[in-house]
Every structure is written in C-alpha cells, then in structure tokens.
C-alpha cells in the first residue's frame, strides 16, 4: 500500500509507516535532503488539490505544524522566537475529506482535532515520552503495547 506523508519533516512518522510495510512518499516545504524516502518539496495544500497525484496513494497521513497549539509556545514567545499564528489543521482536514482517501491527522495535545485518540511514543518502545493526538476518518483501535523499555534515572 502507498502512503502519502504530508508535512513529513525529516521522516520520523514515515519510518514507522515504512516499517509497517507501507511504500512512503513525503511532501514538505523543507528537509528534503535528509528525508529517507521519495519526496516532493511543495506546499501541502497545493499538493492536496492535485487529484491525479493524490489518486496514486491508498492512505494519507498529515502532521500540520504544531507550534500554534504547543504548550511550549509561551516559552518560545518569551525567548523571542514568536510562534506562528498560522493553523493549517482546518484547511488540511477540509482537503483530506475532499480527497475521499482514508486519512490520519497527527498533532499535539491541545490542537483542534476531532474525536482524537492520544498515543505516546513510549507505548511503542521509543525512548521518548511525547504524547500526540490522532484524528482519522477510519476507526482507530488502540492496543496497549507491553515493552521492555526501562526509564533510566
């Protein structure tokens, strides 16, 4: 199955999807040199309007920028690194729905996702306790994963 990873960054989610057996293709405005799979440097919203391109994929994953909803936005502002007021979640969701494809939107707690499921990286054996929300137009079944991961002190 072919998965389109929108706002792919350097490919953290893409690697997980590839390990699960997907053929992954990423789209982002930056990071292309370090992205480990097929890649298009483009505006995601423009790509979502290209029906011929979207038709190549079985499922779409999107991780719109999270800075607007992140709990660290106040720290970034205090450091003079003003966070963007841009929230691409509504436009991205609208375009994903219009595509008719199965989709997943991933973002930080506090983001305006609809009926999301929350997962943590440590649930998958990763050495990171980072929670993320997932919205989808498909049912998401959360399995409790037991790992051998131990927290070092």
Question: What does it look like?
Answer:
The chain is an alpha/beta fold. It has helices at 12-19, 44-48, 51-54, 73-78, 89-99, and strands at residues 2-6, 23-28, 38-41, 59-62, 103-107, 117-120, 131-136. It has a single domain, classed as Rossmann fold. A seven-stranded mixed beta sheet has the order 3-2-1-4-5-7-6, with helices on both faces. The longest helix is centred in the middle third of the chain and has 11 residues, at 89-99. It is globular.
Which properties best describe this structure?
153 residues; alpha/beta; Rossmann fold; 7-stranded mixed beta sheet
Q: Would you summarize the structure shown here?
A:
With 153 residues, this protein is an alpha/beta fold. The chain contains five helices and seven strands.
Q: Indicate the structural class.
A: alpha/beta
Write the CATH fold name: Rossmann fold
In round numbers, the mean pLDDT is 82
Q: Could you spell the SSE succession in H and E letters?
A: EHEEHHEHHEEE
Q: What's the count of strands?
A: 7
- If you compute it from the alpha carbons, what radius of gyration comes out, rounded to the nearest whole angstrom? 16 Å
Quickly count the domains.
Answer: 1
In which range does the helix fraction lie?
10-25%
CATH homologous superfamily placement: Vaccinia Virus protein VP39
Name the CATH class: Alpha Beta
What about the largest sheet? Answer: 7 strands, mixed
How far is the N terminus from the C terminus? 41 Å
């Amino acid at each position: 199955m072919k998965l389109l990873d929108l706002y792919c960054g350097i490919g953290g989610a893409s690697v997980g999807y590839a390990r699960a057996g997907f053929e992954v293709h990423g789209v982002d405005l930056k990071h292309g040199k370090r992205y480990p799979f097929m890649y298009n440097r483009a505006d995601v919203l423009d790509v979502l309007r290209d029906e011929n391109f979207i038709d190549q994929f079985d499922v779409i994953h999107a991780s719109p920028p999270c800075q607007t909803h992140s709990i660290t936005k106040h720290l970034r502002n205090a450091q003079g690194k003003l966070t963007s007021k841009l929230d691409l979640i509504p436009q991205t969701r609208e375009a994903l729905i219009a595509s008719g494809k199965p989709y997943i939107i991933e973002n930080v707690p506090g983001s305006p996702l609809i009926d999301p499921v929350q997962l943590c990286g440590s649930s998958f054996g990763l050495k990171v306790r980072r929670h993320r929300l997932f919205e989808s137009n498909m049912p998401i079944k959360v399995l409790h994963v037991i790992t051998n991961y131990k927290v070092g002190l």
